[in-house]
What we know:
By secondary structure, the protein is of the alpha+beta class. Helices cover about 15% and strands about 15% of the residues. This is Right-handed parallel beta-helix repeat-containing protein.
Amino acid sequence: xxxxxxxTSPKNPERFACWANGKKGTESFPxxxxxxNATGQDPQSTLTEGAAITDGLGRLxxxxxxxxxxxxxxxxxxxxxxxxxxxxxGFSKPLP
Length: 96
């Protein structure tokens, strides 16, 4: 939850997500909304179609700054990160 998804258009790729659903098999969803409604996942995430969601240095654009959710204490402790830090993407050392 609190993810920022991007695709270049509503049809590229055609499917937003494919979800393994036990005996029903894999279900495909064309949008974040259909995925969210069917699975209950990602209620606070966003999907942007078209313009890039990062700048030339890979930083999230300002209009999506509210998307990241605070890192829970148990996750922060297990990963060596600060509790409550907000970030999209993996935690790593910055590029030189």
